[in-house]
Amino acid sequence: MKEKTILTGIRPTGNIHLGHYFGAVQTWKKLQENGLPFYLEIADVQALTDNFNQPEKVNKNVRELAIDALSCGIDPEKTTIFIQSMVPEIAELTVFYSNLVTISRLYRNPTVKAEMKQKRELFGENGESITYGFLGYPVSQAADITAFRGSLIPVGEDQLPLLEQCREIVRKFNHIYGEVLVEPEAMLSDTPRIKGLDGNEKMGKSLGNAIFLSDSEELIAKKIMGALTDTKKIKKDDQANPDVCMVFYYHKLVNLNHLETVCSECKNGLRGCVACKKELIEQMNTFLKPIREKRNYYLEHPEAIDQVLQEGTKKARAVAISVAQEIKEHMKIRYFE
Ligand code: TRP
After folding, report:
1. If 0-12 CB within 10 Å is exposed, 13-18 middle and 19+ buried, where does residue 208 land?
2. What is the value of pTM for the model shown?
3. In a domain, 204, yes or no
4. How far apart are alpha carbons 334 and 337 in whole angstroms?
5. Do 25 and 170 lie in a common domain?
6. 184 and 170: one domain?
7. Which one of 66, 116, 205, 228 has the lowest number of neighbouring Cβ atoms within 10 Å?
8. Helix or strand or coil: residue 129?
9. 145 plus 20 within the same structural domain
10. 75 and 182 part of one domain
C-alpha cells in the first residue's frame, strides 16, 4: 500500500479562535505525531477569491495564522507549513483542471452556493455578480490537494462537497490522461462544531461571538462576562440548567477537572452566574497562557516565522514541481528536452 499523505488548508482571513482550535488544530496536532507526511497550506490565493479587494488583510493574516499555528503546537519539524501563492505549480494545475469541470457543476456545488449567499455584498443578491475566480475555487482546491498527492484531508463537514468535486476531477483526469492522480479521502473531525458566546451554533469572527487565541486577558474577561447563561435564572441562588448555558459549555472545554462540581452547584442553585463566569475566566486564561507566551515570543521574533514559512514553502514547492512535471508529461505538454 502506498504511504498516505495528509494535507489540509486554511484561509488567512483572521486569527484562530476556539472554534478552529477545538474543531481542527487539535486534530492536526495529533496527526502530526503519526509520522505521515503532513502539509498545512495557508491558502492565500483562495482567500483572495472573496477578499480580492482587501489584499492587505490577506497579507497580514498569512503571518498571523502562522504565528497562531506555531503557538498552538504545530511543529514545523513535523508539519510542512507553506504559502499557496508561493507554489505557482498549483495555479498551473488549476488551469489544466478547469477543462475537466463544467460551469453548471460548479454552480451546483453546495458549499459554493451557501458561501455565495453569505457574500451578497460581493456577488449580488442572487449571485448574479459571482466571479470566475470564486465560482472556480473548488478547482483550485483540487490543485492544492493533488499537487502534493494528498490522500487524507482533515476537514469540517462543510468541505465535503469540495472534496467530492476534487475526486471527480481526479477520476476524469486519470481516465483521459492515465492513472497519475490520487483520489483523496476526507477525514472528518470527531469534535462537533464549537458554539459561540451568544449560543449561536457556530463560532465565527463575523458573528462577533468568538474567543480568539490572540485575545488579551482583559478582553477574555469582558467577553465571558457577556456570555449567554440560562435566561430563566434570575437570582444567584436560583436553580438552573447548565445545558442551555454557554458558560458551562466552555467549562466543558477548559475546566475538565472541576466539571461535576460546576454542574451540580449550578443545578442546585449553589453557584451564582458571576462567580461561575469568574472561574471560567481564570480557567480560560490558564488554558491560553502557554499559547499566549509563545505568541508573544513569535511576535518579537518575526524572523523565526519567516524562516518557517520559507523553509516549508521550499520543501512543498519541490514536491509540487515534480508532481506537475509528471502531470504535464501525461498531458503531452512537453516540447523540448
Ligand atoms: N476551503 C478550506 C476552508 O475554507 C481551506 C482549504 C484550502 C483547504 N485548500 C485546502 C482544505 C485543501 C483542505 C484541503 O476551510
Report:
1. exposed
2. 0.95
3. no
4. 8
5. yes
6. yes
7. 205
8. coil
9. yes
10. yes
Please state the domain count of the chain.
Answer: 2
Map residue 320 onto helix, strand or coil: helix
Residue 278 sits in a domain whose CATH number is 1.10.240.10
Q: Put residue 149 in one of left, alpha, beta given phi > 0 → left and psi -120 to 50 → alpha.
A: left
Q: Is the CB of 89 under 6 A from ligand 1?
A: no
| Closest C-alpha to ligand 1, atom 7 | 9
| Ligand 1 centroid to residue 81 C-alpha, Å | 14
**50 C-beta closer than 6 A to ligand 1:** no
Could you report the per-residue pLDDT of 174-219, keeping only the tens digit for each?
999 999 999 999 999 877 789 999 999 999 888 999 999 999 999 9
What are the Cα distances from residue 273, in Å, to 217, 260, 289? 19, 16, 24
112, 134, 155: residue to mutate for ligand 1 pocket, most atoms within 8 A of CB:
155
Tell me, using a 6 A CB cutoff, whether residue 141 lines ligand 1.
yes
Instruction: Identify whether residues 163 and 56 lie together within a single domain.
Output: yes
Domain membership of residue 158 (yes or no) is yes
Q: Which ligand 1 atom sits nearest the alpha carbon of residue 11?
A: 5
**Structural domain boundaries, residue 70:** 6-195+302-331
108 CA → ligand 1 middle, Å: 19
Does some domain include residue 247?
A: yes
* pLDDT tens per residue, range 239-292: 999 999 999 999 999 988 889 999 999 999 999 999 999 999 999 999 999 999
